[in-house]
Design a protein that fits this description.
Elements (H helix, E strand, L loop, with lengths): L1 H6 L3 H9 L3 H33 L15 H8 L13 H17 L9 E4 L2 E4 L8 H22 L3 H32 L4 H7 L5 H4 L1 H14 L11 H4 L9 H26 L19 H23 L5 H31 L5 H21 L32 H16 L6 H20 L1
Antiparallel strand pairs: 1-2
Helix pairs in contact: 3-4, 3-12, 3-13, 5-6, 5-12, 6-7, 6-12, 7-10, 7-14, 10-12, 10-14, 12-13
């Protein structure tokens, strides 16, 4: 406990400052935090359209306002006044509640993010954070995960199969990548010794965790894209097979709330990545007592890092194609989670060794030799990969696009057989002609038959 307090000497000071905030300052912080998400959403919409348009050699929005920069404002004015179309088969109460469940937790999660150090606001000393919880990281993860309930309920309450499939996909997707994201944070918690966001930022004063924990950082980046349903992991709203996914039956302001929740979640996971791995509001290569980390300047460094991560979302959407759903789930369960577990074991091992005084040269060589022997034994224990003959031709076929070699083409199709059978029945039902002609035909047939019998 003594080492913990020595590592973060200003924890009690920050908690005391936040506890001493007057009511008007708490309300001011809450209003600003609630406005950060919608304001950044308006900017991100235009930025994404223009950036993706530039990547794909097209202009993007260029009609509303100078260079099209007011397009997002036009959308924000248009959507509330559009006609609301509600399906007859929808469960109306859940249908109305689902967008609220998606949007509200996304707006609340930013309350635990530290945006800067101690400052003075209208003469009142405080920190640029609404609440400094001991489990702030878990609170942010919980808020980002609650939004999936809104997506699932939206898909179920719409009374249509396509939104239902999108909601089920989103539930499986968020569960898979929430596990990977949570495991990627374990390394940060082990190094910082705390789940508080401000404590994690303070622990990175002498080194950011993105290079100290590179595997955790990469896994978190992949997981946050899957967590927010963004391309190439936007399977719950894949237009190619699900029309619009879970919000197919939504219009007007309800659709806008889903849109807002998606972009605010992007801001949340990017802000958390900045806090956990990129030093938060700290300027690189200088200490916390530097002039660059005092006053309001750190807010600029925080949002600069945040915008770099948000541009990564836009870059992925403009360059990568959408994955198949089975590939996406295999990446989460068979790659990210196992690698994360192995990485946590490695971190714990090296932390334990360092806490016990480190390694001597002989101990290091012995440890390296043991690791090599274990890897060799694992390689020997694995079954040999079967050798596939490239010239082998399957006898019964089955591989696409090669047809089976024993394929038998039918002489007639089922439709042709049915048509011939119908014609035969119609011919049997036709009455026989009565008259001289009919008798003559029967006489000639009898004589022909008799002649054939005589020949035999």
């Amino acid at each position: 406990m003594t080492g913990f307090i020595a590592q973060f000497p200003d924890h009690a000071t920050r908690a005391a400052l936040l506890a001493d905030d007057p009511l008007w300052l708490i309300l001011l912080k809450a209003i600003v935090i609630l406005l950060i998400g919608p304001i950044m959403t308006i900017g991100l919409i235009v930025w994404e359209r223009k950036a993706v348009g530039r990547m794909q050699n097209r202009p993007g929005p260029n009609r509303v306002g100078p260079n099209g920069y007011f397009q997002a404002f036009a959308d924000a004015i248009k959507l509330p006044f559009k006609e609301q179309i509600i399906p007859d088969t929808a469960d109306r109460k859940v249908y109305f509640l689902a967008p609220v469940i998606s949007a509200v937790p996304a707006l609340v999660a930013l309350a635990a993010i530290p945006f800067g150090p101690e400052v003075s606001i209208f003469g009142e000393r405080t920190t640029l954070q609404l609440v400094d919880l001991p489990v702030g990281v878990l609170v942010i993860l919980a808020c980002s995960a609650i939004g999936v309930y809104g997506i699932v309920l939206a898909g179920w309450s719409s009374g249509s199969p396509y939104p239902l499939l999108g909601g089920l996909r989103s539930a499986a997707q968020v569960i898979s990548y929430e596990i990977a994201m949570g495991l990627s944070i374990v390394g940060v918690v082990l190094y910082s010794g705390s789940l508080g966001t401000s404590d994690i930022v303070a622990a990175q004063e002498h080194g950011w965790y993105f290079w100290m924990l590179p595997v955790s950082f990469v896994i978190y980046l992949i997981s946050m894209v899957g967590e927010t349903n963004r391309a190439p992991f936007d399977l719950p709203e894949a237009e190619s097979e699900l029309v619009g996914g879970f919000h197919t039956e939504y219009s007007s302001m309800k659709f806008a709330m889903f849109f807002l929740a998606e972009y605010v979640n992007m801001v949340i996971v990017s802000a958390l990545a900045t806090t956990l791995f990129l030093g938060g509001w700290l300027f690189p290569f200088v200490g916390a007592d530097s002039a660059l980390n005092q006053g309001w300047l750190p807010v600029i460094w925080f949002f600069a890092k945040l915008f770099i991560l948000l541009f990564g979302f836009i870059w992925l959407r403009g360059t990568l194609p959408r994955l198949r759903y089975d590939q996406f789930m295999q990446l989460g369960w068979k790659v990210l989670v196992p690698v994360n577990l192995v990485w946590i074991v490695v971190i714990v091992f090296f932390r334990a060794v360092n806490n016990n005084g480190g390694w001597t040269l002989g101990q290091g060589l012995i440890g390296f030799a043991v690791a090599v022997v274990v890897l060799v034994l694992i390689a020997l224990a694995l079954p040999d990969k079967p050798i596939v003959d490239e010239d082998y031709v399957p006898i019964t076929g089955g591989g696409f696009p090669l047809p089976p070699l024993d394929l038998k083409v039918p002489e007639s199709t089922p439709r042709q057989k049915a048509l011939a059978k119908a014609q035969l029945k119609a011919a049997k039902r036709k009455p026989v002609a009565v008259g001289t002609g009919g008798a003559t035909e029967r006489t000639s047939e009898s004589s022909q038959k008799g002649a054939q019998d005589g020949d035999v």
